[in-house]
Amino acid sequence: MADVEENVVEVHPVSFPPEILARISPELSLQRHLSLGFRSSSRGFEEFRDVTINTENLTDDKALKDTIKTNNEKQILGSCVLKQGDVFVITHITGGVIEDSTLSPDDIDEEEDAELLEITEENSDITKYTSVYPVVEVNRGRMGACTDEEMITSQRLYDTLLHSKILTKKSLRVDPGVRITNEDGSVEIIYPDTEAKKEITKAMTPKKKWSYVLYAKIEVFGRTGPVYDMCWNSLMFALQSVKLPRAFIDERATDLKMTVRARGRNAIVMETYNLLCDPEESYRLPLRDIGKSFASTYGLIDLDPEADISKLDSAEDEDESMEGEEEEEVKTVLLADIDGEAEETCIKSTISITTCPNGRFRQLSIVGGGSKITRELLQKSIALSKQRSSDLTLKSQQD
Amino acid sequence: MNVQTGYLQNVDGSCLYSLNSTKVISSVTGPIEPKPRQELPTQLAIEINLRPATGVPTTREITLQDKIRTVITPILASYKFPRQLCQITLQLLQSGETESLFNQLELAACINSTVFALVDSGVPLKNLAIATTIVIDSNNNIIHENITDDILKNNKSVHVIVYQIENNKPSNLLLMDSHGDFDEQDVLKVLEASESNVRQLNKSFREYIQSKLSN
Amino acid sequence: MAKDIEISTSESKFILEALKQNYRLDNRTFDQFRDVKIQFGEELGDVLIEMGKTKVHCKISSSITEPYEDRPFEGLFFISTESSAMAGPQFENGNNTGEDEVLISRIIEKAVRRSGALDIEGLCIVAGRKCWAIRANVHFLDCDGGFVDASCIAVMCALLHYKKPDITVRGEKIIVHPVEEREPVPLGILHIPICVTFSFFNPMDMEENVKGESNSEIVIIDASLKEELLREGVLTVTLNKNREVVQVSKAGGLPMDALTLMECCHKAYSITETITNQILKEIKIDNEKRDKYSAILSSENARETS
Amino acid sequence: MSRLEVYSPEGLRMDGRRWNELRRFETSINTHSHASDGSSYLEQGNNKIITLVKGPTEPTLRSQLDQTKATLQITVNLTKFSKFERSKTTGSTKNERRILEIQTALVRTFEKNLMLNLYPRTIIDIEIHVLQQDGGVLGTLINGITLACIDAGIAMYDYISGVSIGLYDTTPLLDVNSLEEAAMSCVTLGVMGKSEKLSLLQVEDKLPLDRLENVLAIGIAGAHRIRDLMDEALRNHAQKRISNASNK
Amino acid sequence: MSTLVIPGDEITINPDVPVILGPGMYNDPVTRDILPVNAGILNTSNSKKGQTIYVEYDSKRYTPAVGDLVVGIITGSFADSYRVSLANFSTPVSLSYMAFPNASKKNRPTLVIGDLVYARVCTAEKELEAEVECVDSTNGSDAGFGLLDGGMIIEVTLGFARSLLFNNEFPLLRDLAQHCKFEIAIGVNGKIWIKTDEVKDTIACYRSISDCQGKSYDQFRDIIKKHFQEVTTTVEE
């Protein structure tokens, strides 16, 4: 502790070209840029990178045409390619079908299970919603196990989607039709669309429930900037493009039983049905509008007065921007859509907001390891995020 | 809230922490010699490991670990021990919430428990950090104590807030993690409610440490 | 690889010398098993075992799943024993391929799972389609020796304590009744295996041990951490109250006379009896405590709990 | 597997042995002289194993270096074709916990028997390949290592001989094969030389406590016979080498 | 005056007097704030040199500080120094071959791995490996440092070790001395070495010292008495 009283070593007048300074002292380079009123990417403090979106291009329409077992092969149900600055985020959504074996109250047919409904009644809200299973892959040009960042982003996407209540369990329910062979030998698929048809399918299909499960694979190329934001926005666009195939059961398979035997004991087991996907018919995934939202992240950083170039050679530099004058009071600046190594490593305090176009939030995460997060800055970032959200919504409508 | 520090023998600091139905043990060992790949040239490195009450650790636990890290890193006086390691291990004994849907109660409990264990271990801290969970229910009521799994399930929005404690008062916001449906007003209301919660917790925190020391 | 605990020559010499003179550091006799403290948590199947400073926590969880294809009449049962740095920095996080970790988990596996302590056929719901999967999550919290013994007790206590939710099967559908609504059902426990670990020390040199006739090796029960670090051989005997050997494991180490080993087995039996009785007693007390509330809450369809 | 008679009223086992008879025990020593410093090929009944001992050599990893004694490393390779049913696991069996357990048990058994303190700062690497298994493999592995270590010239206190004994109702059956192993509880022993000292003792299935002593007694006697068989094989082998050497 | 402080508490410091920061205090390299970093009792004292501030707190993990008397285990030896462990899993410290009485290039110390030594910390820079010495560098004598032969190690908390070493009022050693003869070396790293003539006495001392941790002074006598009685009865059995 003896060196406490020692003075700070003075800055030697050694000069480096900007690109070298950025490498050897990212912090200083960043501060210098900021003191001049813009960022190393030459964006303004509150300026976002440009976003272009392309949905449904990867959706495999041909695969839909081939009748395939949904359990085994995954087809792309929805997709989105998002480009933000130099980053590409490719999202494709695939699906599978699972059988619901345990009942939740919604699943019970009213008439016969009314009594059971009563005992298993749960008034819980969140349990009625579901999420997709995202896998985020950040390409770094080499193979290897998942990094923490990938896992954390996947988990955050899952959590946010679930708590946004955008997908109800009901909307993913499979209402299977039946494929029957008519007397004349022609094959027809009956879906429970009308009352009459409902009767037929009800008689034919087993009392089982199936649901779609959605998986999202999100690949990030040229990672820089807030991965979560780009993944979330891309996922949002992709989800809106999802088309689910209709599924049916073959008539012949509706009453299949088989025996199992082990150690001298017998039991009859109902065989698993092959649920088949209709190559012709599909429908758009119903999403609840209240969940549609877009994410943006803001970084907060304290300006270091020592790094202020304008003060170093203030004699000649008089054309200072607004920030320069305010600097005495406002020492913390807010940067939108942080990107680049310097910004990502030096900024310790971040605010990440997922906002609906109507201004309500779905997710908010503030990390305050660095600069103090004041109410003003929080409000400023909230305002920006609302603006950003409506911008992106517009974009999705234009699409 | 129930706290017992110095619960374990073989680690430098430990804390058994329970709040309502959430129960967690945390342990801290350090500063110790790190593995070469963990070493930081100028700072104390931290390693956090969290184990769920049932099953094996998944991405959920990794996400929680990351959140705990963002809170613990700024409060450690990490430049005091360069090239050393602080090993933090957390074991949940009882989750108190539906693990597939929530992690908010666990997160708050883990953070508070870790801070207690750090104090117990004598690892240098610049400040304390105190976490609390707040729920806004479907009637827009703010619920800030005795949060159960049922309350969580019926939430409109749910928030975890961590404040830094400076000079016995909550000062900086270290973490806010919110999900659900809420607006700007809600955020401000939650921050206010959490601040008084944290004040309360800080009081009992201090009392506990005081009683522990006077023994 | 995690580092080991360092122990000085003086210390190891002294501990061995003390053993030769019939002393153990913690004031126990050679045949004395530490007192076992059993604490049940708030939830069912949540148990904390303390043996001296050793602490092991075990929690049971259950879910409904599909049985293995080749065993349609059996449920699933797993025991997970992963060590973490909590028990001491000598344990590496998530490493379950270390020598000691493997031996501990294999012995518990053999003692509890392989010996059929849990009735897995009773976990079958619909043959070939649905069954219960029971998972015993063992958490090593604090290590002062005797992890095997303590975890075995912890797993058995937790299994005895746990009750799975009641279910109704309606054709292909299964309705799980929350614990608050219907009295949950205990698991079928067929026998209670108890592990007792013996540690061997050689007061003479190796030649005497191999060639000599004296059989002077020191045998102690339930070693503490320091004793475990210094021991030259180890034997874990698992028995149940029916005088059955469930599992014996002496994986190398100091060669020991067969008769001495037999003697160990008999000593282990009396310990097994005491601990089994203690477990049953504490389970009963806890059940009664819980019953006070459930008597009020349970509806007319409450089941008989055997 | 329905009612196969494990032990007939006439006192014969499935493969025609009496209760106290060992299986065929055939061995060749120094089978892989170019690949190792000591090797053995052992057939104990239908168990067929190759054991290779390399060392003492300089360790490749620093962590294997011990200032006071040699590091012993044993790798067991249970080949996929060694059993009637091919094992389904696609990956290697290297990290299977059962294999790790066997390896650890073998290391700890031989650590106390080999005079490792004579070879400080070296490593002794033992590799075992199980070509075919038919019950009581652990015992066979012990025998294989003993033979190979002697061939490698590593100093040891005594032979360790391994054997498995089953308990059928009240009759102990010596040196069980896989059918017997599946039908009853078994005990595996590793016995030090001609003594009654057990290096290794493993019981994996339920067994009445009061029968254990009887089983151990039979096992120890069986292990002593195996020791004699190994001793004979080694002496014959040594004789041959000596005569070969003197002929030149 | 003693008050409880908790990390983050503000401390009033007279700005005119030079400050010496002791354990538990920290000068933040970025903000230049002086903070307590451990929870404990704040101690301030004034002397001619300035005011000294430190926090008295108990812990288990030792970090080397210059002048500390420690008990360490030799865990390795190199060309010119030993590696010494002061606490399990901590970064080891070094003990130079020259840091012994009458050391010279030819006269090498004869410690081997596993030996215990009593030593003094001579350098402890946080960025560098700490060093200990077994010689009193002012006069070159052994000053009681060096190999600790035989005996037994007791591990205690650092606070307890400090009271044992520095607090003259602490009655434990005095009470122990009434029961047996012993040699003792107290390391502030929480390791206490004790040696007596008989195994049973060492055992009794070991148990007494371990048990007296966290107990009040007046209980010591009874604890010690109990343990000495126990060891004698065990022998008779």
From TrEMBL, chain B:
Cited InterPro entries: ExoRNase_PH_dom1, ExoRNase_PH_dom2_sf, PNPase/RNase_PH_dom_sf, Ribosomal_Su5_D2-typ_SF, RNase_PH
GO MF entry, a single one: RNA binding
Pfam short name (any one): RNase_PH
Cellular component GO terms held in the UniProt record: cytoplasmic exosome (RNase complex); nuclear exosome (RNase complex); nucleolus
Main location: nucleus
Domain Exoribonuclease phosphorolytic: 1-124
Stored Gene3D superfamilies: GHMP Kinase, N-terminal domain
Keywords recorded for this protein, A-Z: Exosome, Nucleus, rRNA processing
Location in or out of the cell: Nucleus
Family, per entry: Belongs to the RNase PH family.
Name the record gives this protein: Exosome non-catalytic core subunit rrp46
Gene from which the chain derives: RRP46
From TrEMBL, chain C:
GO molecular function: mRNA 3'-UTR AU-rich region binding
Keywords from the named record: Cytoplasm, Exosome, Nucleus, RNA-binding, rRNA processing
Taxonomic superkingdom: Eukaryota
GO BP field: exonucleolytic trimming to generate mature 3'-end of 5.8S rRNA from tricistronic rRNA transcript (SSU-rRNA, 5.8S rRNA, LSU-rRNA); nuclear mRNA surveillance; nuclear polyadenylation-dependent rRNA catabolic process; rRNA catabolic process; TRAMP-dependent tRNA surveillance pathway; U1 snRNA 3'-end processing; U4 snRNA 3'-end processing; U5 snRNA 3'-end processing
Protein species of origin: Maudiozyma exigua (Yeast)
Subcellular location field: Cytoplasm; Nucleus, Nucleolus
The name this protein goes by in its record: Exosome complex component RRP45
Domain (Exoribonuclease phosphorolytic): residue spans on this chain: 32-165, 191-270
Keyword Nucleotidyltransferase tagged: no
Family statement: Belongs to the RNase PH family.
Automatic annotation (TrEMBL), chain D:
UniProt xrefs under CDD domains: RNase_PH_RRP41
Gene3D superfamilies reported in the protein's UniProt record: GHMP Kinase, N-terminal domain
Keywords of this entry: Cytoplasm, Exosome
GO biological process: exonucleolytic trimming to generate mature 3'-end of 5.8S rRNA from tricistronic rRNA transcript (SSU-rRNA, 5.8S rRNA, LSU-rRNA); nuclear mRNA surveillance; poly(A)-dependent snoRNA 3'-end processing; rRNA catabolic process; TRAMP-dependent tRNA surveillance pathway; U4 snRNA 3'-end processing
One cellular component term from this protein's GO annotations in UniProt: nuclear exosome (RNase complex)
Keyword Nucleotide-binding: no
Molecular function terms from GO: RNA binding
Domain Exoribonuclease phosphorolytic: 21-154, 158-221
SUPFAM superfamilies: Ribonuclease PH domain 2-like, Ribosomal protein S5 domain 2-like
Pfam family name, one: RNase_PH_C
Cellular compartments annotated: Cytoplasm; Nucleus, Nucleolus
Chief location bin: cytoplasm
Quaternary structure and partners: Component of the RNA exosome complex. Specifically part of the catalytically inactive RNA exosome core complex (Exo-9) which may associate with the catalytic subunits RRP6 and DIS3 in cytoplasmic- and nuclear-specific RNA exosome complex forms. Exo-9 is formed by a hexameric base ring of RNase PH domain-containing subunits and a cap ring consisting of CSL4, RRP4 and RRP40.
Family (UniProt): Belongs to the RNase PH family.
Name this protein carries in UniProt: Ribosomal RNA-processing protein 41
Lineage: Eukaryota, Fungi, Dikarya, Ascomycota, Saccharomycotina
UniProtKB/TrEMBL annotation, chain E:
Keywords from the UniProt entry: Cytoplasm, Exosome, RNA-binding
Pfam families linked: KH_6, Rrp40_N, RRP40_S1
CDD domains xrefs: KH-I_Rrp40
GO biological process annotation, one example: poly(A)-dependent snoRNA 3'-end processing
Locations listed in the record: Nucleus
Domain K Homology, chain residue ranges per copy: 151-199
Protein name: Exosome non-catalytic core subunit rrp40
GO CC annotation: cytoplasmic exosome (RNase complex); nuclear exosome (RNase complex)
Entry-linked InterPro entries: Exosome_RNA_bind1/RRP40/RRP4 (IPR026699), KH_dom_type_1 (IPR004088), KH_dom_type_1_sf (IPR036612), NA-bd_OB-fold (IPR012340), RRP40_KH-I (IPR049469), Rrp40_N_euk (IPR041054)
GO MF annotation: an example: RNA binding
Residue span(s) of domain Exosome complex exonuclease Rrp40 N-terminal: 19-61
PANTHER family noted in UniProt: EXOSOME COMPLEX COMPONENT RRP40, PNAS-3 RELATED
